[in-house]
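Methods — Computational structure assignment.
A single polypeptide chain was analysed. Its primary sequence is given first, followed by the predicted tertiary structure written as structure tokens.
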Amino acid sequence: MSTRLNSTEPTKEKQTLRDARINLRGTYEEFEFIRRAAESSKKSLTEFVLESAAVAAERVLADRSNFVLDSKAWKAFHVALDRPAVLKPRLQALLGESDPFIG
């Protein structure tokens, strides 16, 4: 038997106003697969999809902003950064050409 909380009753979880909408389209099979995973995780479909997307977003962004190097690799990285730029005439010529995709 489920009970419904009145709007004046406090809840255990912190309430966050969700005022943005994400619309997704997929196949019925994809929907059912995700729904089953959410159900087995004891989460609502919204919670499951948002948490999964947030984890994936963190991974993607971390790969672009955080670099973990040991001491030897860190020193080699600094040496490479401090090295003066080398003029590459073929690269300079290529970058001087017009973009073939724009015209």
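Note: Residues 1-11 have pLDDT under 50 and may be disordered.
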